[in-house]
Structures are given as C-alpha cells and as structure tokens.
Amino acid sequence: MDGFQILMIPSPDILKAVVCNMTGLTQHEFNFSNQRSETVLTRKLFVLLAMDVCQYRECEVTRYMGHDHSTTSHHLNSAKDLLDVDKRFANIYHRIRQAITTRSELDDMPRDALILKLKITRIDLDNKINEIDQIIETLTSHEYTNQQIS
User: Fold this and answer.
1) Which of 4, 75, 77, 142 has the fewest CB atoms below 10 angstroms from its CB?
2) Dihedral angle at the C-alpha atoms of 47, 28, 10, 74, nearest 10 degrees?
3) Does the CA dihedral 29-31-35-41 come out positive or negative?
4) Could you tell me if 10 and 54 are in contact, meaning their C-beta atoms sit under 8 angstroms apart?
5) For 76-135, what is each residue's pLDDT tens digit?
C-alpha cells in the first residue's frame, strides 16, 4: 500500500458511484452490458481500486460485478498496465486513491471544531433527506397519481 493509510473502506456501491462520477459514466451505463471503451475503462478502474486500494478479494469483486473470474482477472491485469500508458486513467486512479488513503483536513482540526463541522454536515444531510421524503410523498400521493392517469 505504499505507506498510505486507509481512512475507510468504501462499500462497492460507494466506490462505484465515485468511479462513475470521476469518469462521467452513469451507474446505469456501468451496470449495462456493453463494450464501449469508456465503460470498460471505468470497470477496469473500479476493479483495480477495489482490489488494490480497498483490498477486496477477487471473488468479492467478481460477485459484485456479476462477471466470471477470468473477466475480473483480465480487468485487474489490464488496469495495472493502463496505469503506465494512459495518463487520464492514471490521473483518475490516483485522485480516487488519494481521497481514500490520505489524511483528510478533519484529522488536523481541533476536536470542538470537528464536532461542530460534523453537526453542521448532519443538519445539511437531514434537510436533504427531508426534501427527498417530501418528493416521495408527493409522488406517491393520491392526487399526483390521479393527475398522471388523466
């Protein structure tokens, strides 16, 4: 691991979301079975990060991806080769790796300031969750359903 310390191991879903965000691929495109070069490169990046940085076992990644062992193994090996020849691929890989493995600014923050920052973040998240709940309630309400049918 080159002396890096993992702050947290993201779940495969979170890692996939981060990788897709960084490559501009939607998660639907990631899951959709096609051989577009951007899709394949994103999957290779995911496999490399999952196994090399997050230390998921190959069988876990294979199961998550819904591929067979040989596809996962090929993705891993070709992703390692791409690190040497594809600057964009390497740049995205290192940016995600750094985000996962380096100390964050929170580590150096005084305890009281950290608690305050986390409380503010929690309030922001609670507000967003409330907004989403209201949208869901609106979409599932009787009036909205009747409007859509008419």
Assistant:
1) 142
2) -10
3) positive
4) yes
5) 999 999 999 999 899 999 988 877 666 555 566 677 776 776 777 778 788 889 899 999
